[in-house]
Amino acid sequence: MLDTEAFREFKAGLNLLRDNYAGRALPHMQRAMELDRNNPYYMSYLGVVLARSEQKWGEAEKLCDAAVRMKRNQAQLYLNLAEVYATAGRKDDAVDALQAGLKYARRDVRLSIAMNRLTRRREPVLSFLNRTHPVNRQLGMIRHRALRILNKDE
User: What are 74-100's pLDDT values in tens digits?
Assistant: First the structure.
Protein backbone atom coordinates (compact mmCIF):
# COMPACT_ATOMS: atom_id res chain seq x y z
CA MET A 1 0.00 0.00 0.00
CA LEU A 2 2.85 2.38 0.78
CA ASP A 3 4.38 1.62 -2.62
CA THR A 4 1.23 2.63 -4.48
CA GLU A 5 0.86 5.79 -2.41
CA ALA A 6 4.52 6.64 -3.02
CA PHE A 7 4.08 6.02 -6.72
CA ARG A 8 0.94 8.19 -6.78
CA GLU A 9 2.84 11.04 -5.10
CA PHE A 10 5.78 10.58 -7.47
CA LYS A 11 3.53 10.63 -10.51
CA ALA A 12 1.77 13.81 -9.32
CA GLY A 13 5.14 15.46 -8.71
CA LEU A 14 6.44 14.33 -12.08
CA ASN A 15 3.43 15.83 -13.87
CA LEU A 16 3.96 19.15 -12.10
CA LEU A 17 7.68 19.08 -12.87
CA ARG A 18 7.00 18.38 -16.53
CA ASP A 19 4.68 21.40 -16.60
CA ASN A 20 7.45 23.58 -15.06
CA TYR A 21 5.90 23.81 -11.60
CA ALA A 22 8.93 22.63 -9.65
CA GLY A 23 7.90 24.45 -6.48
CA ARG A 24 4.53 22.71 -6.45
CA ALA A 25 6.16 19.35 -7.26
CA LEU A 26 8.49 19.50 -4.26
CA PRO A 27 6.05 18.31 -1.54
CA HIS A 28 4.95 15.40 -3.74
CA MET A 29 8.52 14.28 -4.40
CA GLN A 30 9.44 14.63 -0.73
CA ARG A 31 6.43 12.55 0.29
CA ALA A 32 7.29 9.84 -2.27
CA MET A 33 10.84 9.79 -0.95
CA GLU A 34 9.62 9.50 2.65
CA LEU A 35 7.45 6.53 1.75
CA ASP A 36 10.13 4.69 -0.25
CA ARG A 37 13.65 5.83 0.63
CA ASN A 38 15.39 3.15 -1.45
CA ASN A 39 13.90 4.08 -4.80
CA PRO A 40 16.61 5.68 -6.95
CA TYR A 41 14.06 7.38 -9.23
CA TYR A 42 12.32 9.14 -6.35
CA MET A 43 15.72 10.17 -5.03
CA SER A 44 16.92 11.46 -8.39
CA TYR A 45 13.80 13.42 -9.24
CA LEU A 46 13.74 14.93 -5.76
CA GLY A 47 17.23 16.21 -6.57
CA VAL A 48 16.02 17.73 -9.84
CA VAL A 49 13.09 19.41 -8.08
CA LEU A 50 15.35 20.79 -5.34
CA ALA A 51 17.71 22.20 -7.94
CA ARG A 52 14.97 23.81 -9.99
CA SER A 53 12.78 25.14 -7.21
CA GLU A 54 15.12 26.03 -4.34
CA GLN A 55 18.56 26.10 -5.98
CA LYS A 56 19.92 23.69 -3.38
CA TRP A 57 22.69 22.50 -5.67
CA GLY A 58 24.72 20.50 -3.14
CA GLU A 59 21.78 18.54 -1.78
CA ALA A 60 20.39 17.96 -5.28
CA GLU A 61 23.77 16.71 -6.51
CA LYS A 62 24.09 14.29 -3.56
CA LEU A 63 20.63 12.84 -4.18
CA CYS A 64 21.18 12.38 -7.91
CA ASP A 65 24.66 10.98 -7.44
CA ALA A 66 23.44 8.47 -4.85
CA ALA A 67 20.67 7.40 -7.23
CA VAL A 68 23.18 6.85 -10.04
CA ARG A 69 25.31 4.71 -7.74
CA MET A 70 22.26 2.59 -6.91
CA LYS A 71 21.41 1.87 -10.59
CA ARG A 72 24.33 2.57 -12.90
CA ASN A 73 22.63 1.29 -16.06
CA GLN A 74 19.62 3.64 -15.98
CA ALA A 75 20.03 6.51 -18.43
CA GLN A 76 17.35 8.69 -16.84
CA LEU A 77 19.36 8.95 -13.63
CA TYR A 78 22.36 10.29 -15.56
CA LEU A 79 20.09 12.73 -17.40
CA ASN A 80 18.75 13.99 -14.07
CA LEU A 81 22.26 14.41 -12.65
CA ALA A 82 23.32 16.29 -15.78
CA GLU A 83 20.24 18.52 -15.50
CA VAL A 84 21.16 19.40 -11.92
CA TYR A 85 24.68 20.31 -13.01
CA ALA A 86 23.44 22.31 -16.00
CA THR A 87 20.89 24.16 -13.88
CA ALA A 88 23.70 25.05 -11.46
CA GLY A 89 25.78 26.40 -14.35
CA ARG A 90 28.28 23.53 -14.23
CA LYS A 91 28.22 22.58 -17.89
CA ASP A 92 31.48 20.59 -17.82
CA ASP A 93 30.23 18.42 -14.95
CA ALA A 94 26.97 17.86 -16.85
CA VAL A 95 28.94 16.66 -19.87
CA ASP A 96 31.00 14.35 -17.63
CA ALA A 97 27.82 12.88 -16.15
CA LEU A 98 26.42 12.22 -19.62
CA GLN A 99 29.69 10.61 -20.73
CA ALA A 100 29.53 8.31 -17.72
CA GLY A 101 25.95 7.51 -18.67
CA LEU A 102 27.02 6.64 -22.20
CA LYS A 103 29.56 4.27 -20.71
CA TYR A 104 27.01 2.35 -18.62
CA ALA A 105 23.76 2.80 -20.58
CA ARG A 106 24.99 2.88 -24.17
CA ARG A 107 21.83 2.07 -26.03
CA ASP A 108 19.83 5.05 -24.79
CA VAL A 109 19.72 7.73 -27.46
CA ARG A 110 18.53 10.37 -24.96
CA LEU A 111 22.06 10.57 -23.55
CA SER A 112 23.52 11.37 -26.96
CA ILE A 113 20.83 13.97 -27.62
CA ALA A 114 21.49 15.66 -24.28
CA MET A 115 25.24 15.56 -24.93
CA ASN A 116 24.76 17.26 -28.31
CA ARG A 117 22.72 20.02 -26.68
CA LEU A 118 25.46 20.75 -24.15
CA THR A 119 28.54 20.60 -26.33
CA ARG A 120 29.48 23.47 -28.58
CA ARG A 121 29.97 22.69 -32.25
CA ARG A 122 32.89 24.07 -34.16
CA GLU A 123 32.28 26.57 -36.93
CA PRO A 124 32.01 25.11 -40.45
CA VAL A 125 35.42 24.87 -42.14
CA LEU A 126 34.22 26.94 -45.08
CA SER A 127 31.91 29.58 -43.63
CA PHE A 128 30.48 30.58 -47.02
CA LEU A 129 29.03 27.05 -47.43
CA ASN A 130 26.21 25.54 -45.41
CA ARG A 131 27.24 23.23 -42.55
CA THR A 132 25.53 20.29 -44.31
CA HIS A 133 27.29 20.86 -47.64
CA PRO A 134 29.27 17.71 -48.58
CA VAL A 135 32.56 19.62 -48.87
CA ASN A 136 32.11 21.12 -45.38
CA ARG A 137 31.16 17.74 -43.96
CA GLN A 138 34.26 16.05 -45.39
CA LEU A 139 36.59 18.85 -44.34
CA GLY A 140 35.01 18.86 -40.89
CA MET A 141 35.64 15.14 -40.47
CA ILE A 142 39.25 15.59 -41.55
CA ARG A 143 39.67 18.48 -39.09
CA HIS A 144 38.12 16.41 -36.31
CA ARG A 145 40.48 13.49 -36.94
CA ALA A 146 43.51 15.76 -37.18
CA LEU A 147 42.66 17.51 -33.91
CA ARG A 148 42.08 14.18 -32.19
CA ILE A 149 45.47 12.94 -33.40
CA LEU A 150 47.17 16.13 -32.28
CA ASN A 151 45.24 15.93 -28.98
CA LYS A 152 44.11 19.53 -29.27
CA ASP A 153 40.72 21.16 -29.08
CA GLU A 154 39.64 24.51 -30.47
Answer: 999 999 999 999 999 999 999 999 999
